[in-house]
Design goal:
With 209 residues, the protein is mostly helical. It has helices spanning 51-87, 99-128, 135-160, 171-180, 188-207; strands spanning 11-16, 30-34, 89-90, 93-94. A two-stranded antiparallel ribbon has the order 1-2. Strands 3-4 form a two-stranded antiparallel ribbon. α1 (51-87) packs antiparallel against α2 (99-128) and α3 (135-160) crosses α5. The radius of gyration is 22 Å and the shape is flat. The two termini are 42 Å apart. The model has no long low-confidence stretch (mean pLDDT 92).
Length: 209
């Protein structure tokens, strides 16, 4: 990995990238063009060939942070779902009184709390035993939590109806964030493969006893 200051000659800002059609400054990503960009060798971080090591050292705690944020989004979405269900009436009943809505609420609560406990376990492992020992657990939460958040937010959108996909509520923005995190910092498929490889290795060692 190399530090390249933005004012370095040869760097051109092309455009800010949108997420689900919406601009995402200043938090989002920018398309850059590099033409004959040169920096001093002292800008190399740690040393040649250590980029993957640096990335992995950051990604473990970073993925836990992403998952913590998503749990917060899911909690907020469930709160919005319940607020809407208390206020909205259909067929002379408040939505909150309908079994189908109550089941949605129950499923959301179960999903959020399951994911929270898994994140807590991963965070505890990384604190006590380090990044390497927590690799499988971090991969697990990176799959479980974005899927959970997408599901909970989607249920909240459904209960809001048309308002849920508009800018009148934050739910559409929440959905874009949660869905993007099924790709960012490694897509689900990569994490699933990593989880499986580590599980197969652990099981093979047991079978050899």
């Amino acid at each position: 990995m190399i530090i390249v200051p933005m004012e370095t000659p040869g760097i051109t800002k092309i455009r800010p990238l949108s997420v689900y059609g919406s601009e995402d400054p200043p938090h989002g990503h920018l398309e850059l063009k590099f033409e004959n960009v040169r920096v001093p060798a002292s800008n190399l971080i740690l040393g040649e060939g250590r980029g993957f090591e640096i990335a992995q050292g950051r990604l473990g705690p970073g993925r836990i942070h992403h998952c913590m944020r998503l749990i917060g989004l899911a909690e907020r979405s469930l709160g919005l779902l319940c607020d809407r269900a208390f206020q909205r009436k259909a067929f002379k009943k408040r939505l909150i009184e309908m079994d189908v809505i109550q089941h949605k609420i129950a499923e959301c609560r179960i999903s959020i709390d399951q994911a929270r406990l898994l994140v807590l376990k991963a965070a505890h492992t990384i604190d006590v035993r380090g990044v390497k020992a927590a690799r499988q657990q971090v991969a697990m939460i990176k799959v479980v939590v974005p899927r959970m958040a997408v599901s909970v937010i989607d249920e909240a959108i459904q209960v809001h109806g048309g308002a849920g996909v508009s800018s009148d509520t934050p739910l559409a923005g929440f959905y874009a964030i949660a869905r993007s995190l099924r790709i960012a910092d490694g897509p689900d498929e990569v994490h699933l493969s990593q989880i499986a490889k580590q599980e197969i290795l652990a099981q093979s060692k047991k079978s050899m006893l």
